[in-house]
Amino acid sequence: MKKVQLELKACLAAAALAGVAGLVTPVYATGPDVIVGDLPDTTHWGAGINTNGVTVEAYSVGTTSCNKGDTPLEWITTAPNANRHPVIGGNMYRLDITKGRFEQIGQSWLKQSFTALQGGVCFNDCQAHPDGTYLGVHCSDPYGSGLNGQQSRLSTKAEVNASSGFYPIPFGAGTQGGSSATVWKR
Length: 186
Description:
Blueprint: H1 2-20, E1 34-38, E2 42-49, E3 55-61, E4 63-67, E5 73-74, E6 87-88, E7 91-96, E8 101-107, E9 110-112, E10 134-135, E11 140-143, H2 145-148, E12 154-155
Antiparallel strand pairs: 1-4, 2-3, 4-11, 5-10, 6-9, 7-8, 9-12
């Protein structure tokens, strides 16, 4: 029994070392698979007063999307009624140490993405797609916090069908454009 345990530990250690040394080929998702690979910056837009007289602060966070799948990801915004691009939502949490849990303290509307750049933030083997209508395999696309907080690009989450992923184009019927209210949509 002791010999089997030692052999098992040796095999696990060898497998771990092989993975560290790059000898194990990583398994990627089948099809497109978008993840958030980086949160590079934040913008504090200011404060506003909500209907209950509470001061609310408005922030946005920069995001870098990465396609970790084995197929390019649609990022099409130019065709009529093209709802074939990702939307990006943000949530904010705080850690309540006394309760031992995270608490959600805010959420943004959805940022409508456009034009997929072909960077290498998450992987070093980006297979770039030539015209920005797809995010290539292992490529990344950055959006700074200023762009993610631009009110004219934000739409309500209620428009997205959570089962199918469908959302209407044009987005945000009655809610497009900007506002002088600092916290609106952010």
